[in-house]
Amino acid sequence: MKFAKTVQGIPQVGIGYDVHRFGKKRRLILGGVRIAYHRGLLGHSDADVLLHALCDALLGAASLGDIGKHFPNTSRKYKNISSLVLLKHVGKMLKAKRFVIIHLDSTLVLQEPEILPYVPKMQRNIARTLGIARSQVSIKATTNERLGFVGRGEGCAALALATVLADGAR
Description:
Low-confidence stretches: none
Largest sheet: 5 strands, mixed
Mean pLDDT: 91
Number of strands: 7
Strand order of the largest sheet: 4-1-7-5-6
Shape: globular
CATH class: Alpha Beta
CATH superfamily: 2-C-methyl-D-erythritol 2,4-cyclodiphosphate synthase
CATH architecture: 2-Layer Sandwich
Number of helices: 5
Order of helices and strands: EEEEHHHEHEHE
Number of domains: 1
Distance between the termini: 22 Å
Strand content: 25-35%
């Protein structure tokens, strides 16, 4: 069976999902922004579920694997690292493969805290890190209507969709 090569001007889409549980003695970082809250997310890095989902979406859109492949949680190199650093590296990987980011859409799923006041700064962080316009970064939030682990306030999840354009010169 033959497969068509990616050609110039063809959009490619990737999805990403991440989840982390809340724990004490951690800062809550979402979209590279410190959120005022009494608990943070547990993880090997800063556990920024939003940026992790975006990394996976971008990597998926470019068929480059997933975040665990490139930044394994078994490596001391990534212990407590800012996920903005990981996102920047993913952006460089896409650029090296001649992909152009068209749009990022994401949804944070958490019962609390309220994140709406932080969204503009998250958008700026992501856009600046990837070298794209803030208008190319959409961030939404929803609760889980008190259902499941998110609804009980045990953790936070994020979903992301990345649309990229392959320039065909790979």
